[in-house]
Design a protein that fits this description.
Layout: E1 10-12, E2 20-24, H1 34-46, E3 55-61, E4 64-70, E5 78-84, E6 90-96, H2 108-123, E7 131-145, E8 151-164, E9 172-177, E10 183-189, H3 197-209, E11 218-223, H4 234-237, E12 242-246, E13 251-255
Parallel strand pairs: 1-11
Antiparallel strand pairs: 2-3, 3-4, 4-5, 5-6, 6-10, 7-8, 8-9, 9-10, 11-12, 12-13
Amino acid sequence: MKKMSSALAVLIAATLMSSTPIWAKDKDSVELPNRVKEAYEEVLELVPEIQKYENREVEVYDGIYTITLEKKKREYPSATIEINEKTGDIVYFEHISNLEESSNPPSDELAKEKATEFLKELLDDKFDQYKFDSIKEDAIHIRNDNEDGSQIDAERDVKRVLFTTENKNVLNIGVVVDTEGTIHSVLPFLTEEKLDQKIRKSVDRLFEAIPELKEGPYRVMRRDRNYENWSKIPEHSIMREQIFFSSDNADIVIDNITGEFNH
């Protein structure tokens, strides 16, 4: 549906090994687990506008509920919410509501203020482990072919507000703030100190050999052999963990133990 451009080198995503999509026109007809439901309703309260989006699709991946809300099926405006079933944590949030070209990003002051306010409400006490790091200029590219034959192709200048944490078990967070302080997206991201150095060195060697592959963003996925659903499959239980780097230009698979390329 869309293609986004970003200055970040890598983004983190949940493991996407198998999915069971469930389409529901009635937004209340799909029963969500309690923790997922609580987190979902919290986002609805934070962003009342998306409560008006009548079409809802729920995709269940291994431990991750991805909820997509749209005003009209397969068209913008829309919102995507990813929630960890076990913890109720928000893994990813994106709200595409501004569909016009814009070269007028928010000021650094406004971007920081709105990003901080949103994260405090979203994370509650967990926000205390984060600290403001920096603000970067960025752009989002929105594309879509609508069912009526019309097209959306717009680029918007935005600000990306970065928050970091010293907790090695928790990823840093980036908040994309659009014009007038509208929250476009919230997503964890990897930095070099959060990524195993064997993996980082392997990727750097590849980028040095093929510079054009540096263009991102890259989504990083981990195929974990210890994951409860993954390890139940005998032939998978003996496989090593793998790190997947995926972008519009390349798919890179690295052994998470040795740092060697698998693909």
